[in-house]
Amino acid sequence: MNDKVRQSLISIKEDCAKLDSLGYKAGSGKTKLEPFFKLALLRLFVYLGTRNKNLSAEESVFIGEFLGRSYSRADLLKLVRSDKLKLEDVIDTVVMLCAPFAEAECDGVLENGSGRLIAATNDIGLDFIACDGNSTSEESTVLGKLIFRMNNFTGSYISARGGVPVSGSSKQQADASTEQKPKAQEQEPEKTLDELLEELNSLVGLENVKSEVYSLSNLIRVRKMREERGFEQPKISLHLVFTGGPGTGKTTVARLIGKIYHCLGAISKGKLVEADRSKLVSGYVGQTAIKTRELCESALGGVLFIDEAYSLTNNQGQNDFGMEAVETLLKFMEDNRDDLVVICAGYTDLMEEFLASNPGLKSRFNRFIDFPDYTPDELTEIFRLRCESYKLKVEDEALECARTFFEDRCKNKPESFANARDARNYFERVITRQADRLAPMEAPTDDQLMTITVEDVVGVIL
User: Phi and psi for 87 in degrees, rounded to 5?
Assistant: First the structure.
């Protein structure tokens, strides 16, 4: 157990003692928080440690240090009845701890209490996974799911108590389809890993996407920890395939992944370079390789995001140079495999055809993240949050009307259906109708200027 983890453990024990003294409870409330915390994480350790292997000596020592006393492997397995452990039960037990910490945070008793609990749980879990060289990729996935669930629970709890969502995230999601380039002189300050994951978690929907990204970040962190301890590590590919329709947040998540990878030291810069067929393929012999290489060089140190990647190979003919772009891309990826991540995106069936077109693609792209279409409730929430980001208040009747609109649109999806882009376009039409309603007024009040009424949303057509 490293010094950072020991300090995190001491801090959480102190928080538990404070909350116990003030009467905060977890679960049924029969057990005090510190022993509840220890038992919950013990169950997690044993579950992680028995995935396709025996609980190792190093893991047993780690658990003994965590508990403050030594146990034999047999005693540990008996203590938590490892043969009965199920993943959902393990996760649910740990998540129960979030309630008293989030409640104390809302009460002003424990500043950032839930955030500290989640960070400590993740740090302790990562250190446990890294304590020997025999762990499996399933361990990172399990820990990723747990941290995602903890974030989800505390976010919902704090929001229900009147907490404030992460600033700007909803607007970023609704703007996922727009081409907004930052000014050259403006440089966004770098965020911490926790801030980036919080930004990811604040996006509407995308539950499986968030879980996959949490698992990926933990995989990278564990590899780094093992390398620092001298364990030999197999090569892994961090390249990704995003599948799904337009407007489902693929570019937004790709941008966040670039920053997360950079924060974890997997790439040197973390920037995102967006591309499509037109930026990779030329219409003249010998020009495509040059064009593709120049674009790849501009993305070096970051993420190259290729949207509609299947367009490179689905129109092969005498004068088509898409496959030349693919071969140039594969060569550049191999030569720069330690400082370039490529994310290819597109419709699921077409991406399968794309990967089958060249054996090199299949060998390099073995991680897939699916972006499902948004539900009517999620689209309504994106619309509401976009209004909120501009300080616009939406009347309840108007919001119900918007929900009805998105229910009908999702039920009878037109060919142009574009998920979050539809929510953005809907918002623009609504504020245009609001302007038409307010323009004839001589002196509208501030409340009138900042309120969306049912009159503004009824009859909106995309």
Answer: -55, -50
Decide: 64 and 128 in contact? Cβ < 8 Å.
no
CATH number of 376-457: 1.10.8.60
Residue 148: which H helix or E strand, with range? helix 137-160
For residue 2, the one-letter residue type is N
List, for residues 166-187, the tens digit of each pLDDT value. Answer: 434 444 555 554 444 444 445 5
Strands (E), 119-166: none
Gyration radius (Cα) of the chain, Å: 25
Half-sphere exposure of 286 (CA within 13 A, CB side): 0
Q: Quote the tokens at residue 265.
A: 């030291």
* Site of tokens 């972006």: 371
List residues bridging with 27 in a β-sheet: none
DSSP assignment of 420-461: HHHHHHHHHHHHHHHHHHHTT-SS--HHHHTEE-HHHHTT--
Nearest to 284 by CA among 332, 321, 247, 339: 321
Q: How far apart are CA 275 and CA 83, in angstroms?
A: 50
CB count, 10 Å around CB of 391?
A: 8
DSSP SS3 for 244: strand
5: how many CB neighbours lie within 10 A of its CB?
19
Domain boundaries, the chain: 3-162+205-218, 237-371, 376-457
pLDDT 10s digits, 27-60: 766 778 888 888 888 888 888 887 656 777 888 8
d(CA 438, CA 449): 7
Q: Which two tokens stand for residue 4?
A: 């950072």
Q: Which residues pair with 451 in a beta bridge?
A: 393
- pLDDT tens-digit series, residues 5-30: 888 888 888 899 898 888 888 876 67
Q: Quote the tokens at residue 133.
A: 């060289």
The one-letter amino acid code at 383 reads F
* Strand bridging mode 393-394 / 272-275: unpaired
Count CB neighbours of 27 within 10 A: 15
Say how many C-beta atoms besides its own lie within 10 A of residue 324's C-beta.
20
Q: Could you read off the pLDDT of 429-445 as tens digits, one per residue? A: 999 999 999 988 888 89
Stretch 302-320: mean pLDDT, rounded? 82
Token pair recorded at residue 313: 């190979």
Please answer whether residues 448 and 402 qualify as being in contact, where contact means their C-beta atoms are separated by less than 8 angstroms: no
Residue 90's nearest CA partner among 80, 77, 104, 100 is 80
- d(C-alpha 85, C-alpha 88), whole Å: 9
- Name the β-bridge partners of 25: none
Question: So what's the architecture of 237-371 in CATH?
Answer: 3-Layer(aba) Sandwich (3.40)
